[in-house]
Amino acid sequence: MPPRKITVMKFGGTSVADPEKISRAAERAIGERRKGFGVVVVVSAPGDMTDELIALAERITPQPADRELDQLITTGEVVGISLFAMACMARAVPAISLTGPQAGIEAVGDASRAQVRRIRTKTILKHLAAGKIVVVAGFQGLAPNGDTVTLGRGGSDLTAVALASALKTGRCEIFSDVKGVYTADPRIVHDARKLSRVSFEEMLELAGSGAQVMQARSMEVAERFGVEIHVRSAFHSLPGTWVVSKEKLMLEKAFVSSLALDKSEVRLTVVGVPDQPGVAARVLTALAAADIPVDMIIQSAPSQAGVNDMSFMTPKAFAVKAKKALEGAAKALRAERVDLNEAVAKISAVGTGFRHSPKIAATMFTALAEHKINIHMISASDLRVSCIVDLAQGEPALKALHKAYGLAKGKR
Questions:
Q1: Do 6-177 and 248-412 come out as alike in CATH topology?
Q2: Strands across the sheet with 105-108, in order?
Q3: Where are the alpha helices (DSSP H) in 144-234?
Q4: Looking at domain 248-412, what is its CATH homologous superfamily?
Q5: Tens-digit pLDDT profile for residues 33-62
Q6: Which one of 8, 146, 258, 342 counts the least CB within 10 Å of its CB?
Q7: Assigned fold of 6-177
Q8: Taking the model in full, what pTM does it have?
Q9: What is the pLDDT of residues 14-31, one digit of tens each?
């Protein structure tokens, strides 16, 4: 019979980067087993192995086929789970490593960005009933055609949260090289403060704004199925940050909880678009047909000549493809040209109640103006206000806003 209590623990690449760190992570998993838990561990590829495998592929061809690239980079997680299971067994604790398909993770969608369809837990539960620590490869699943496909960057987070949901654990431990979720990146803002709790909604906005803590899609699954997440350090025993429902935080007033700086996107502008009905639809349809994600959309007011400009933000990996798609649309619409700007950064303030508090946006714009930081684009929601600035001004903007919102240690 499987154990009544099951815990899901996920270790990121930096947490299992070498044999010593793998051994330390294995000790944590063994410690949970000693407490009476059935332990399921999700492991990423060690260290920078995924990036190294991608670089290896690009030495063969600058544009490797998505399917073959998936076949290559999933081997990184296989290395990680095998070594982790060995580390457990070296300590006389039974363990078994399972790839995503072996663990019953079924996926749908294209290679490199597949989605979890369902998880058949029979195999995992069988091994837990036998007293084993089950070590599952993150980031991968089984496609209907029998291929192993990956779940997108940060997909191990999604694997862990989906497993916690399927196994009905109610919670998931995410271990990495950070101690939790901070008011800003502590590597840039040295007086950034660690948050004890943050809502699913805020965490989703932070992930979407470029904070490298959790994958955005994993937050969506966690919120939908009520899986609380504990983001904590793999190298310290102190509590980290709990990601919980907004109701548990009982938030009553508007405030900024954290800031995010994203340097991974580019700005594309279609210059001189005719000011006519249906033009925006044709431009966006061209991007959608090329399967290009769009983050922000800004359209300028029409000039006296009856034309305007349309600007978009998209990840750098899609820059060339997006420019080509837009150039085709621009030609058909007789627009002037398509500009690509890679030297931009997105700075975002995330919190709650923004829609009813214009002071939050005003504080951002005032602080940036005082530091002579020009704003290129703006977008806002009830949980987030984002600005696009020059890349060189990204970090100064982050520091200025962190001070303006009073987020430093000891301020709250």
A1: no
A2: 115-119, 105-108, 140-142, 148-150
A3: 155-166, 200-208, 216-225
A4: VC0802-like (3.30.2130.10)
A5: 999 999 999 999 999 999 999 999 999 998
A6: 146
A7: Carbamate kinase (3.40.1160)
A8: 0.84
A9: 999 999 999 999 999 999
